[in-house]
Each structure stands twice: as structure tokens, then as C-alpha cells.
Amino acid sequence: xxxxxxxxxxxxxxxxxxxxxxxxxxxxxxxxxxxxxxxxxxxxxxxxxxxxxxxxxxxxxxxxxxxxxxxxxxxxxxxxxxxxxxxxxxxxxxxxxxxxxxxxxxxxxxxxxxxxxxxxxxxxx
Length: 125
Ligand SMILES: [Zn+2]
Known about the structure:
alpha+beta, binds zinc ion
């Protein structure tokens, strides 16, 4: 199995409600996002997927989040825009864009250099 891993970044503000502490106040992060796509075979050019395609898919999705207050986006209406929920949002959106034969294994969101979360889907394909 081959894995291609693409990392991109975006900046956004959020508030994490009902967990106490300063995270409940509006604050921002420079988030880093890593998408891991997998496939068992390569194409005739010897690549699994064009890096540029994965970057484009990620950038289209991250463009919806960049320089926004995430709490104001419809997806996060009623749920906290935690890194966990951000990872699920990105995972579901990236998966919609993948061509046949390629799977999305994981989306990882770094909220800081020292803290990250990953979402790997429901386990159902
Ligand atoms: Zn935060």
C-alpha cells in the first residue's frame, strides 16, 4: 500500500464552549492540516496521485475555513469547532473529491506544534 501525505495550513479563530478556561474566549490558531491518501497500485506514470491534485483539493476546502471565525460557519452550528470536529469536516470533504481507487486514510489537524488530532473516518467505506 502506498501513502501520499500532503500538509497545508490555514488561520482561523474559534471559541470552544463549555470546557472552561481561556479556550472559551475567542482566539486564533495557525492550523496545519495533513491529509494521508492511500492506494494499493500506481498509475502508468508510476505515481499514486498527483501531489498538485491533493494540494488543490485541500486548499479548496481550507479556503472555506481560512480567516474565518469557525463558530459562525453552518457546519459548526451546534457543535464546537474543536480540532477534532475540524478534522472530521476536512476528512468528509476531501473524501468527496477523491477519484476511484484512492482512499483517504487520515486527516490530522495541528492546533499547535505540540498538539494534534487525527480523524480516520467511521471505519465504514
Ligand atoms: Zn483554540
